[in-house]
Amino acid sequence: MAICLMTLGYVLMALLPDFVGERAVYYVGLYVLVGCVYVWAIQDLEQNPLPLAVLLLTAIIFRLILLPTAPSLSDDVYRYIWEGHLWAEGISAYAYPVSASVLDAYSIPARDLVNHPWLASPYLPAAQIMFFVIERIGSGSVLAFKVGAIGFDLLSGWVILRLLKKCGLPQRAGLIYFWNPLIVVEFAHGAHLVESMLVFLSLLALDLGLSTPGSVQKPVRYSIQLTVSAFVLSLAALTKGIPGIFVFALVRRWGWRRLLFFVLCTAGICVLFAWSPGWGLSNPATGTGLFGSLRVYLQQWHNNGGFMHWIELVLYGYNPEESIQTTELGRGLLRLISGVMLGTASLASAWMVGKQAGENLEIRPKEQEWLWVLRVSILPFWVYLLVAQTVYPWYLVLVHAFLPFFYSKKERGPSASKFIPAWIYFSITVNLTYLSHYRFPSVSEYILIQVVEYIPFYILLIWASWPYRQKIRLSFSRKG
What we know:
Blueprint: H1 2-15, H2 23-43, H3 52-66, H4 76-88, H5 125-138, H6 142-166, H7 175-178, H8 181-189, H9 193-209, H10 219-240, H11 247-254, H12 256-274, H13 292-300, H14 307-316, H15 328-353, H16 365-377, H17 379-387, H18 397-402, H19 419-429, H20 433-438, H21 443-465, H22 469-477
């Protein structure tokens, strides 16, 4: 029944001419309905588990239904096409804004559809390499980039199944990822190739890192695996930066030599791409250079943020265009607070990796260790989303790639599976922000949407975290 209802929901979505304007209401309604069926399927996962083949087949069908739809919720794919085209012409996508007259001779239809044309590329080198590859294969086709996004998406699912088996969890928990409507829509419809890449590369780096010398035939092969893990995570960090947080979970396994290798790979590739256009870190912020557009984004973008964004609203007032008019000192203070919270969470994640905190799981000790590493490695990203002043729906895909590792019916004491409802609720209600963009842009409706989106999410998150307070207190009180 769940398969039929979800298939029907995606078919009805695909029949819409687009998902914006007046049709945004229909899209969001269908999305919420599909989301409710998805929640039902998760609740029924233990009693009526799907065969793995059926799970994979339905996941592919859901994505194929939305594959022919034209991206309408986001126009990021047109920037992918344009920047891939520039690299194919031998021009750095970091050197000039999209609207620069010097690029007129290279213009293609996608150029006119690129958002924020006064900026050069905000995407890091690994993403640029993939833009170039897909542009050469698909000749600037939106479909080619959507296929690329789905390809990395399904590869991520494959790694998730590997990790579930490695950690002693049932592979049926992969449904939490494969059937997630946020994943399906943002990749199969939205063509968010960069996010799809970073999810796959992050998971692959962790999969390669979570091995032991006894699990391979030769210690040399184990050493090579860890080195490849460091290289793959470097590529992940060079898609959008944030996967760099997984260094804190892997550094104990890598050792300092591989950590140095990771740093040198990341820095070396950055130097190569910044050699001609520059770094974009000097004043004024023109949006050119390797980090120029990213710098503008961090300074000026505000959209659907959580409580740090609300603090800014209280202190500085609301602008209907979602750009908060703060003083430079105010912005700096809020960024400092967010940075301290993220840094603290990352260091705490590294510390927690070394703790034997998985003893309440009824699985083998080595599986407990691997599962614990996967769970705590995503915690800094949770904190990042909680303090970020910009949270688009597709920002959540990395969280949902890790949710299957929180599924377990074999835990005594605090259950990590309680975190799943909080993030699934957020993944469903975050789509309400499309209403504020495309249908109801007034101030009061925007605030109402944020209340519906965030307040229950915070309550669910606190409810899931509360049982761990005693465990954390005891952990900190232990000697050594």
